[in-house]
Amino acid sequence: MLDDYYPRALQWCSTDDIPDDVININISKSYPNVLLNNTQPIPLYAIHNTIEPFNSKSDLNLTGEFYINETILYNYKTPVKIEAGFYSSNLISYLVDTLNMPLSQIKYKFIANKALKPDTFSEFFRYIFDNFPESEAKKIAVSYIGELGRKYNRTNYGFTCTDYETAMCCWTSGLVEGKTVTIDHYNGMYLIREQQIERIFSDHTSINWFVVSEAILKCLKLIDACYSEDSILHGYNTDGIYISNPKKFFKNKRDVKFSTKKIGKAYVTDSTLSYFEKHYRENMDISDYTTESGKGCIFTGQAGSGKITKLCNMVKDAKNPLVLSFTNKAIENVKKRIIRAQVKNPKKKVER
Which of 134, 180, 261, 339 has the highest CB neighbour number within 10 Å of its CB? Predict the structure, then answer.
């Protein structure tokens, strides 16, 4: 149950056209900020902890996670949806006390017997952001937080081919052996992927639950700080919002040099980027693509050697590029790189 109802990121974007005056306001280093400036006990769970029914509002004073049904909040004329799942007591208290969520939405409690002090991780994050370049510090922070939430070891193997019989043979043989095998077809090209999944039994994932919950809370507080009667909320994504006519403005990202003093501050990014990101996402269609033969090549190298940068440059230079990958995370990384480079041609697609 805890695996199925892990805290879900706060995500939504309007399907209407985004106006020219939209502003994208982001929280600087949202996840590292949670553990750097945290003021709440961080719950730790053991195999003996059990899920119990929620009793009353006084339960929210306990350190733990609380399960809520899918909740739609209409405080900002735009529905803000909180997915069903377990969230920190601090976030749930804010939903109840500030955003008027009915207590009837809370169904279960998962109370921790032990907890870390609020400032347990603050010295670590302060050190890496003060002593490493921002790009390196961010990689260390994100990798560390991600490891705290890892529930499975996933190993992916795969290949592409153009022969139907080869693809079907590998797919069926994998299924016979009880493996998780998927096959995708793109205009004569077959992408075969075999994934081995091993469950990790550990107690540290609760820290990651806490981080995600607290990041959602910061985003909700950002909406509250920026929203007024004249504002229109066009979208939100855990660490940022798209909004017109905000009542509060922040420095442009170009004017902010990151340091520990800036963690948790909000900054404004170029509004054209938010429009392009939405336009790019809505117009993904590979139905008009055909494959062409050509010279194949393989790029290999250690992390940070520039493999994805090379790929993005090839995508920008190609007439009808089609990028395939064995994981959605890799494709999302390529998409973000291309978007950041402000690609102007919407026909250049990157597919999951």
Answer: 339
